[in-house]
# Entry
Amino acid sequence: MSIETEKKKTYRSILKWGDPNHIEEPNKRLVGYVKKYMAVTDEDIKTPHLPALDEVKLDTPSALSAADLESLKNIVGKDNVDISDYERLRHSVGYSYYDVIALRKKAKIPLVDAVVCPRHEADVVGIIKFCDEKKIPLIPFGGRSSVVRGLDPIKGGISLDLTKHMNKVIKVNETNKSATVQPGMFGPAYEDYLNNYKTENSSTGYSCGHFPQSFEYSTVGGWVVTKGAGSLSTGYGKIEDMVLGLKFVTPKGIIEIKDYPRTAAGPDLRHIVAGSEGTLGVLTEVTLKVWKFRPDNRSYFSFLFKNWEGAVAALREIMQGEFGLPHMLRISDPEESGIGLMVEGITGGPIDKVLSLLGYKDGQRCILMGSTEGDKDTGCLIKKKVKAIAKKHGSLYLGASAVRGWYRHRYNDPYLRENLMDMKVMTDTVETACSWENLPKVWAGVRQVVKARKPSVCMVHASHSYENGSMLYFIFISKIKPGDEIDDYLNYHSSILNAIIDNGGSPTHHHGTGRLMAPWFEDFSGKTAMGLLRAIKAELDPNNIMNPGGTLALDFKGDKKKSFRI
Ligand SMILES: Cc1cc2nc3c(=O)[nH]c(=O)nc-3n(C[C@H](O)[C@H](O)[C@H](O)COP(=O)(O)OP(=O)(O)OC[C@H]3O[C@@H](n4cnc5c(N)ncnc54)[C@H](O)[C@@H]3O)c2cc1C
# Structure
């Protein structure tokens, strides 16, 4: 069923997630479920919808003049400027559902005019100066894993690809327990470097503590400017909690923030860079907290609750227990738990019967999974406390193996999107932060909107939690409307976002705002705050060359509550 990307330079090779050689075959139970509940036919499975196997050929040449291209080559060297069709298209899209469907349809989308790969900070300074003088848009480019249309070059211009050269650890400071790293380094290279950093001061090596699901194909710089969250964020924090110092090149000059652990010297400018999503400047260096790498100390636990309310109550009590935090902690709602147990072959079998007799019924029961890292004694204490809370809320202890399995496969699920889209099934995600008070409303309100579109699956989990609230992550799976794929998706997405906001959630918790969430951003921030953000933009980037065209609603005055359209 899965399509190999036989020809290398096809549209499909750009829209395919991750490792080009990784083909994730959905297991038989999952295929059966999709066929039954999503009304997918054998014909749908046999004939892939919009497979996009054509080779990339653009009919829009680069808008840059020969003299401009020559100037760019003089700054970064001739091997670091690319105007080939394939690279221009690859650098004009991220991995948002919108981007992927636009590629499948070979829709006419805005394109960058050149891809430029700076070798070092001086090159970044030179390129920004050139673009500012010529008023050419400049879009910083990391791993391309943006799911919020953060890279769409609405006004054309140059994609500044930081991954080719600016991808190294500059130093590890063991005294300060920090690492300084260039922005274009991918997650695995960074983590491997830290894990293997062994000296007389440290026999363990270090860990970066940040493991988003996109870890393998996203960069340190991208994590920081989009304010990402990794799967262990409940313990280690979000990426903005890890930033100590940084260097940020803007059209107006360089901002350098030293790695003070804290200061009271005015507002914290690190929090303007974090979340700036390429609109203010280019992050060229960042100093981040690191942790001792002690995988043998990791301990796992999982529980089954009778219902969502019980799981949420336990999650909140753990987060507010003041005894230390698990690093990974997530609860899945009844629909997600049900599909998880079905895929594992539990549903309908003898174990299911026993569970039902005990009151843990399919359609109501919820899974909680967690793990601790770091010091072993602290981990034991946290696990003991978590067990007591979970027991109090009527759960059944399931042990460690489900969590170990989750760790092993945690980066694989995104590969399934291609298979589903081939079968005319849309799958996308939205995520939000909400207070504990609003969480039940947001969960129910969004599910109601998704479920109103029949047939639809709506799986929800809370996987990044805080003392005062949590994140909810919605995976919605619905049928594609052939012929109307783009508008239909944008309308559907808008209705889901409206349900989040109307019920008290934020437009995003960790994916960032990009262009996809921009229409909700001004309402969310308020007029005065928006004015402040626009003033910062005008000060640092007076010619609006940095990632222009919608991101963060800085230069966008579209319809309220309606998805951004080109
Ligand atoms: C399958 C999948 C799973 C995901 N899971 C998670 C998850 O678990 N947690 C999470 O937080 N996110 C997740 N994401 C979203 C995405 O991975 C993050 O937003 C990530 O931080 C983006 O990093 P990147 O290097 O890919 O940046 P890109 O996508 O290349 O860029 C994102 C934005 O940052 C800007 N930018 C990039 N580098 C710089 C720089 N050096 N200076 C200034 N601006 C820059 C770009 O212009 C763009 O606006 C997921 C995405 C996918 C596709």
Observations:
- The domain at 296-410 is CATH 3.30.70.3450 (Alpha-Beta Plaits).
- The radius of gyration is 24 Å.
- The chain has a mean pLDDT of 95.
